[in-house]
Design brief:
about 230 residues, 10 helices
């Protein structure tokens, strides 16, 4: 148990000289990253679904880690090819390990905020639940984006160790763009995560392939701005 805690602490500190060993031959350490995503992702998934209902929270706790693992596999192959094109000494498996580490850090970050989110919900009145759904959704989209950025910035320290500052920035930006577009659209297909109070709770939506994540965010922002103008 102490060894696992030390590994998690090392992962969060992002010490590049030691994490490079995880990257090259870290099969055992791979389990630590996977466990962080499974446990941290499930905890955070439960917190974002509990606004709707305990059943939605359970569904989201299951789906959130699945979303991350699908994103890691798809982006790992894409980002591995991008790294080779940019002249970085990373093969496909090493790219997958690197992305797993960054997502593990992001899940630890999100799970650590779980008590704050629960306290926030505890202080809501029943009338806030319907009106606050769009605010809650936008807030958590921002939190997920922040956590992903933190995880990737930790990853940048490792990339700098492997490839140098200039190439590390090029790889990081390309990886961030790929993670953003693919991860967001996958989250749209696997919805609901938050659980719209006006729609019945379900594991997946029948219209999963309709529209896109970006259209939905734009509509939420329009509704949010309209509420502000009506105040």
């Amino acid at each position: 148990m102490q060894s696992v805690v030390q590994d998690i602490s090392l992962l969060c500190r992002g010490e590049p000289s030691r994490l490079e060993g995880w990257l090259r031959t870290g099969r055992g350490r791979l389990i630590v990253s996977v466990a962080c995503i499974l446990i941290g992702g499930a905890i955070y998934g439960f917190t974002i679904g509990i606004l709707r209902s305990p059943l939605q929270a359970t569904y989201t706790a299951i789906k959130f880690p699945i979303l991350i693992f699908i994103t890691v596999i798809c982006n790992g192959m894409l980002n591995g090819m991008l790294a080779m094109l940019l002249g970085i000494r990373l093969n496909l498996m090493e790219s997958v390990r690197a992305i797993l580490m960054s997502y593990a850090i992001a899940c630890i970050f999100l799970a650590s905020l779980g008590p704050v989110f629960f306290f926030h919900l505890w202080n809501w009145s029943p009338s806030d639940q319907g009106n606050g759904f769009f605010y809650w959704k936008l807030f958590h989209i921002a939190m997920i984006a922040m956590a992903g950025t933190v995880g990737n910035l930790r990853l940048w320290q490792l990339l700098k160790q492997v490839a140098g500052r200039a190439k590390a920035w090029a790889v990081l930006i390309s990886w961030l763009v790929a993670n953003l577009f693919l991860g967001c659209q996958l989250s749209w297909i696997l919805r609901p995560f938050f659980g719209n109070p006006n729609i019945e709770v379900s594991f997946l939506r029948e219209d999963a392939l309709d529209r896109s994540f970006y259209e939905d965010v734009w509509m939420i922002m329009q509704g949010f701005l309209q509420q502000i103008n009506n105040i």
